Amino acid sequence: MKVYQGLSEFRNIVKPVLTIGTFDGVHIGHQKIIGRINEIAQEIGGQSVLLTFDPHPRKVLSPYRSLEMITTMNEKIELLKKAGLQHLIIHPFTEDFARMKPELYIRDLLVNGVSAHTVVVGYDHRYGRNREGDFALIQDLSSTYQYEVEEISAKAIEDINVSSTKIRKAIYNGDMVKASLYLGHDYIFKGEVEHGNKRGRKIGFPTANLHVNKDKILPDTGVFAVHASVDGERHLGMLNIGYKPTMNDDPTEKTVEVHLFDFSKEIYGRTVSVCIIKKLRDERKFDSIEDLVVQLHRDKNQTLNII
């Protein structure tokens, strides 16, 4: 898959079959769309293209409303590559761009920018100033600009019954089984290992404190069964997201910590890739450190049974 930082880099592609969207999470609905444009491209001897935006439009249009992403741009690129997409254009989303008239959006992006042979979008796709553009306009201008159009019907979208918003809610609530079902793949995040208070090693459960991109969505709090990769090696483990009420002196300090089974290397400054499989339990305060340790052994056994 080739990646282009803006339309100016995109040139000389034979019969581009284009779809448009943010594709956060590259979930099963997105995968179905990528599959369809790949299918059309193969039929006509063309190539599949996704036009996406960075930053996410909502971050520009509603900057005071927080929006945590399911995937970073690098993660999105990897997932789109796995889905078989051939070309990805990352177009900067700005306030000026958001004010573009829908007719100019079609002319300057779809026609002059991509030279689209076929445009595939959902029936509810909106674009341009105040989101005034719709599928009907893309269809109306297809004869003027000589491109083909295919609509993803309401029924097709309803049959999939998934959205990035639903997935964000499932992740935040710790329902990783539902999130994975909607995504069509396990939920993964990355974090750089930083120094912590080292209390975990004193009770036989050393943890790596992870610094995670602030724009990346994570479950609110809880203990989770995971597998994690460090330097290309995969390990089973447990993840704790929360305030460590039994051991932490600061009840306002939220941490993300992973304990890897049978692992003792120093990995400060390294990046750990964590795949969250299932929530084990809520975080809670124990009456003693001893009670906490007993529960951690139970958590470990449960993780080994799950994974």
CATH level-4 homologous superfamily of the largest domain: HUPs
Query: Which band does the percent of strand residues land in?
Result: 25-35%
Overall 3D shape: elongated
Residue stretches low in confidence (pLDDT < 50, at least 5 long) are: none
Number of helices, counting only DSSP H or I runs of 4 residues or more:
11
CATH topology of the largest domain: Rossmann fold
For this structure, what is the CATH class of the largest domain?
A: Alpha Beta
Number of domains: 2
Order of helices and strands: EEHEHHEHHEHHEHHHEEEEEEH
Physical arrangement of strands within the biggest beta sheet: 1-4-3-2-5-6
Task: Identify the CATH architecture of the largest domain.
Answer: 3-Layer(aba) Sandwich
The overall pLDDT, averaged over residues, is 92
Helix amount, in percent?
A: 25-40%
> Structural class of the secondary structure composition?
alpha/beta
Distance between the termini: 32 Å
- Annotation, overall tally of beta strands: 12
Gyration radius, in Å? 23 Å
- Biggest sheet character: 6 strands, parallel
Secondary-structure map with pairings?
Layout: E1 2-4, E2 16-20, H1 28-44, E3 47-54, H2 57-61, H3 73-82, E4 87-92, H4 95-98, H5 102-111, E5 118-122, H6 135-140, H7 142-145, E6 148-152, H8 154-160, H9 164-172, H10 176-183, E7 187-194, E8 208-212, E9 222-230, E10 233-242, E11 255-260, E12 271-281, H11 289-306
Parallel strand pairs: 1-4, 2-3, 2-5, 3-4, 5-6
Antiparallel strand pairs: 7-8, 7-12, 8-11, 9-10, 9-12, 10-11
Helix pairs in contact: 9-10
